[in-house]
Amino acid sequence: MLSFCKLLAVLPVALAASAGPMVLHERRAAVPVGFVRQGAAPANEILTLHVALTSNNVAGLKERLRSASTPGSAAFRQWLSMDEVKAFAQPSPETVSAFNTFASANGLKPTVISANGDWVTISLPVAQANTLFAAEFEVFTHPSLPGPITRTLSVSLPAELVGHVEVLDPTTAFVAGDVRPPGPASSTIARDAAASCDTSVATGVITPACLQELYGIPTSPATEDANVIMVTAYEQEFAQTADLAQFLTLLRPDIPPNTTFEVVSLNEGLDPQGQFLAGLEANLDTQYTIGIATGVPVQFLTVGGTTDLFPTNLLNTTAFLDGVPNPPTVLTTSYGRDESDFGASLATKICNGYMALGARGITVLFSSGDGGVRGNHDELSICSNNTFLPVFPASCPFVTAVGSTFGSAPETAVNFTGGGFSNVFPTAFYQTAQVAGFLETLPADFPGIYNESGRGYPDVALQGWNFEIVAGNETTLESGTSASSPSFAGIIALLNDRLLAAGKPVLGFVNPLLIRRARRRLRTLLRGITRALSVAFDAAAGWDPLTGLGTPVFAELLAAAMAA
Ligand SMILES: *[C@@H]1O[C@H](CO)[C@@H](O)[C@H](O)[C@H]1NC(C)=O
Ligand SMILES: *[C@@H]1O[C@H](CO)[C@@H](O)[C@H](O)[C@H]1NC(C)=O
Ligand SMILES: *[C@@H]1O[C@H](CO)[C@@H](O)[C@H](O)[C@H]1NC(C)=O
Ligand SMILES: *[C@@H]1O[C@H](CO)[C@@H](O)[C@H](O)[C@H]1NC(C)=O
Ligand SMILES: *[C@@H]1O[C@H](CO)[C@@H](O)[C@H](O)[C@H]1NC(C)=O
Ligand SMILES: *[C@@H]1O[C@H](CO)[C@@H](O)[C@H](O)[C@H]1NC(C)=O
């Protein structure tokens, strides 16, 4: 922290530096719904801001990802190394020099916090931040947050930093509440109830065996150790090993009950064990990755940091993986927020982080949200004027977003499944024909307000209703796209295992392959879903914004993966 004397020394310089022209960077027209203004932030409060220095060649990285992920291209599945990605993602010497000149002129000491050098932190008092970035930092509260947060509704850059700085965080991002989508209520079940894998009936309960049967997922153990699934956890969600052992004993008795996950901690994230510490999300995610991806090693990444810093914590995750030479091959995340909470520059930077992971051969999966077209919520009031709210990171074109189905004859989109169109990211290069095809199915007088030119999500779907898990030593039913993403991650990991065993590269960023193959062989590769209960969009043949391309058929996916 800066001392008071230092603060006095710094201020005049800061004021001098503010004399130059300022360029608006991000702005909110109003305080986001639910937040309450508590007045100006104290002038001497010390802020730690994360600064994203502009990557030198995002367009080049995107082009490499496009060719590595598109079947038929010469570079197909030639995933990049850590250093190759760094060459695209790191800031140019001019950018580093421009920022360092600015920093030293203003008495700031930047600390580089990412392997690619594109993230630095600076600590400075509110008064100086207000001057340097033409901001007005204020204190805000939200009933769901444990304490006040300091944010500004507007942030600008001095002209000499324009083009060199992509993001200042946290500034205009406002995140509150539970970043875990609010799934339908969980309930404890009696094990002796007549069970069925058909969740369209009252006794229908999904177990690993149901998913294996429904999608033809093999039960034989994986053989390749270099293929690892990483399950992320935010929000103090703790995965329990005792519950996992009980889950395996009950529902995967053919897997050794001492099979477990490796805990990886980031930003002081924890994973304490105890009967009353079970995180439903963390248990669901670990139980259904380990329970589906038989024999695939699973890492549980527990990320510390508070809810209001969820965007920062997502960045922390990608920045961490950027520095891991042999990263996991599959990353699954069941957390998200309204895209509008982030702001365009921050969402873009985070999304580019997933682009970089995809280019390294990591399949990045996200649950698509549980509020249908109402963003991350299910309160009707939020969307009363028919304006649909997309969910991020599912809306990022470089993740594979997974929606939810239920029932089995036929499988149907479940009415909470999140989907729609981004307001930040344009229609992705791999989905233009599919999105256009879907939009043609909408009636001319369709009342929903959504962004026709945006990236459409989800990409795929899988069951998401009444998953049996063990939590706190009791069996419980959990529902939501939170269940679908880890299960799909398990399928991707098993496909990777077979690819590696055959001496082939892993799937990596998989959306173009799924679309290409689905276009030619929709019925056999992925089941199209034509019934839906959505309050807004309806499912359609081909791609739709409820179930994407549909649900997996393991043998068909394996054949497509091997042939490509
Ligand atoms: C699990 O138990 C088996 C048999 O008791 C043992 O061979 C194996 O090493 C154990 N695995 C772990 C990860 O503890
Ligand atoms: C993660 O966040 C912590 C706390 O904000 C910070 O100290 C650390 O440098 C961050 N790491 C990365 C890789 O961003
Ligand atoms: C409709 O709702 C959206 C999302 O809540 C909001 O941003 C927009 O301002 C509203 N439009 C009108 C005309 O009320
Ligand atoms: C979804 O379907 C369930 C069961 O039919 C119903 O109770 C619920 O109200 C529906 N939710 C929405 C948002 O329509
Ligand atoms: C619609 O999405 C595009 C990106 O595809 C974006 O530039 C535009 O601002 C969005 N429109 C609205 C109203 O958000
Ligand atoms: C967990 O439940 C089982 C029975 O379902 C019981 O045998 C066991 O003692 C319980 N374990 C704990 C730690 O309560």
Automatic annotation (TrEMBL):
GO terms for molecular function: metal ion binding; serine-type endopeptidase activity; tripeptidyl-peptidase activity. PROSITE patterns: SEDOLISIN, SUBTILASE_SER. Pfam families: Peptidase_S8, Pro-kuma_activ. One of its GO terms (biological process) is proteolysis. The keyword Calcium applies. Keywords: Calcium, Hydrolase, Metal-binding, Protease, Serine protease, Signal, Zymogen. One of its GO terms (cellular component) is extracellular region. Residues 205-564 form the Peptidase S53 domain. It catalyses: Release of an N-terminal tripeptide from a polypeptide. The keyword Signal applies. Its EC number is 3.4.14.10. Its cofactor is Ca(2+). It is found in: Secreted, Extracellular space. Gene3D superfamilies: Peptidase S8/S53 domain. Residues 1-16 form the signal peptide. The active site is at residues 281, 285, 482. Secreted tripeptidyl-peptidase which degrades proteins at acidic pHs and is involved in virulence. PANTHER family: PROTEASE S8 TRIPEPTIDYL PEPTIDASE I CLN2, TRIPEPTIDYL-PEPTIDASE 1. This is tripeptidyl-peptidase II.
